[in-house]
Every structure is written in C-alpha cells, then in structure tokens.
C-alpha cells in the first residue's frame, strides 16, 4: 500500500477491511467474481438476497445494471473510489458520515454457531451454484484447527494471488493474518514474473495455490531467474496436481520445505485435510483430516464402509461444516443427512499410514484453472437457446495442463431448417455472452441426434465421457 508521502501509485487495500467491517457490524458478507456477466451477477444478487453493495470503480457500471434488474435501489450501490477529497454521493466515504458504534460482540458458542458471517458460493455435489452459509464459529474454528496446531520455526509470510471472493481465500486472506499476525502480500491478480519477484524480494515462506499456478511457474523460464528458497511450506488444492510437478516445485523450495496436496471445499469452511508441517507428501495423498472432524465413507446405497483401503463417498461432520445452504431446501435435503454433509468425493484411508487419498468425484464438477464449473449451469444456458432442444456438458482434459479441464457440450438441435443451421461457433458465442470466461465451451461443441439418458430422463454422463474418449482417439497426435 502507499500513502500521500510515499512514491508509486495511490493504491489502498480495502477488501479485507470491508469484509471485517461487515462481519463486525453483525451483517453478512458475500463477494462476487469480477469476471461475472450480467446474467451471473443477477443470479448472485438474487440468491444471496443482497441489499447493499460496494463495488470497485472499474466494475461499477456493470454492477449498476445488475442491481437495477434486481430492484436494488441505486443509492445502495457505493463505489470504492479511493480517499478523494471530492464528495460523490456514490462514494463509499459517505459511510463515514454516519457516526460510529462498538463492534457487535458475543462470547456465546450457540450464538457464534447460528450467526452467519458470510455467504460463499459452491456448486456442492450437484446442481447450480448455491450460497453456503458460513458462521462466525465456522471461521474461528477453521483458523484454529489449521493455523494453531503446530509451532513453526519461521515467520509466516504469504503471497496471496487468488481471488478474495473465493472460499479458499476468505479464512486465509481475511481472518488469519490479523488473528495470527501473519504477513500477507496481496497481488491483484497472478502474474508469473511478479509472483516470482515478490516471493524472492519479501522472502515469502508459505504458499496456498491451485495446480495451474504451480504448472505455469514450472513452465516459465523465469523460474531460473528468481529464487524460491525462502518457501518452507506450500499447499495446493482445487484440483489434482500431478506428482512430478509436485516434486519439481518442492525441489525449488527451502531444503525442509515442500508443496503438498490438501483437501477442502466451501461447505467445510475451506481446508478439511492436509499435511502438518514439516511432513512431506510422496504419493499424492491429501494427508490427514483436521482434529475434531468426523469422517465416514458410504457406498452407493448409503451404507457405511468400515474397512481400510476401500473407496467410498466422504461424509463429514464437525465444527467447520456449514449448517445449510441459504434458501435452498432441495439442495439441503440432498446434501445433508442430519449433521453429516455428503461431499460427493470418493476416497479411501490407507491401513498402514492412515493417510487419505481422493480417487474420484461423485459430483460432476469441472475444474477449470482451479475454478469450479457446474455442468447444470452451462446446460441451463444452452437450453435457453431457441434452436437447442437438449444439451449435456462434461469436463474433458485440456491440452494445456494449466487449464486442467475444459467444458465440452453435446447438443441436440431443434428439428427444422433453422436447427440444421446451428453451428459450433454460434453456440460458443451464445455461451460467451452469458457466462464468465472460465465457463466457456473451450472443450468443444458436438452436435448429436440424441443424448444418452436413463429411463427417468437423467443424463448418462459416463456415456458422454466414453464418447469423448473415442473422439479423442481419432485426434491426430502432433
């Protein structure tokens, strides 16, 4: 950050301050993706029942259009416009003219558990994105279990380069630094050279990144220019990082450092399983579940699996697990059995090491550059096209490891002359106008006569994946 007497651009960091101010006032915070289209912004505002919005200047006009569509008064949309002395009725500075009062404080456990602090979006195990209600208690426990179990012989300094609206960044970006006194260096967005330069300059000691960041660093020739030897610990999540990349990156770190896989999701307040420092992963395990979390594995008939080395769906309960999604009774019924949350992830526990391994996803989420893409969301947009009668979306491996997976659509045109004219480019443009860039159909569009379904009408996505494998085998190898 810089001030009036410091060189460089006039930049003030407000995001975490705003988050903490909202929570401290007893209100509920939610953040949006700056890459959202108007369609997605409206979905977010309606799902969270947002009443008051603060936007950065570059996004103000787009947010204004969305708020008007959602019948949110224009005076309830303010702008983070810096510390300008010029008065503007839409400036966030107007909030400073309404006096002050003490924080809303409570030390009752039940109040902490039942009071929501933020709404973070998740695709859950199925369906459209849902607003997960994280309580004050969830955030406190997530920090305590993850950050206060092991004394580390180094000063924790992190570089934060992932979006601050994301569930993976809320605890470690907004809560942990002030509670634990950890130093955080915040990047507006990830850029390889800036990341490497800042890591060396500020002697960063810890990382929390997604696999595409690791891969892009390893692929860059700049990795030979800058040193990463200050890094003592790293976690990667959001998608699977191949073991070779994991070992190569760890070799660039401090001799006692390593980057390890972790396991987490929005509904468990971010991290659920990881390696305690200084243990190092050697075979792709996500380590051990945090203390106070109960885990059980169930089969396809929801019967508990009690044997080691036997895969099943993870059900989890404990103090970091949310109570429910906001205003979504259908998703709550499907995702919870009492206080057990169904993760949709298939895993097993090794009998010898007691380490956990994630082997598959029961849910059909597509992981694009660490972002979750829910096929039903893309399918709903495709079905709104006047010339499409049916659509199914799957994730396929990208040619570039940085991307991870890409959405691929199989569509059935409506019968008739107009439907016969439907092209792949038309479909791609239609989606591009309505959804964020990472949700684009960069895995391709295939026009088919019919989609494979069960007798009840449910898509047989495994048949689409088999179809893609056959298609992939016909693609010439370069």
From TrEMBL:
Keyword Transmembrane helix: yes
Domain AMP-binding enzyme C-terminal, residue spans: 377-458
Protein's UniProt keywords contain Transcription: no
Any coiled-coil regions, as ranges: none
Ranges for domain AMP-dependent synthetase/ligase: 17-326
One Pfam family, short name: AMP-binding
GO BP annotation list: secondary metabolic process
GO molecular function annotations of the record: CoA-ligase activity
UniProt cross-references to Gene3D superfamilies, sorted A to Z: 3.30.300.30, N-terminal domain of ligase-like
Transmembrane segments: 12-31
Keyword line: Membrane, Transmembrane, Transmembrane helix
Family named by the database record: Belongs to the ATP-dependent AMP-binding enzyme family.
Name this polypeptide is given: Uncharacterized protein
Species: Rhinocladiella mackenziei CBS 650.93
Biological classification of the source: Eukaryota, Fungi, Dikarya, Ascomycota, Pezizomycotina
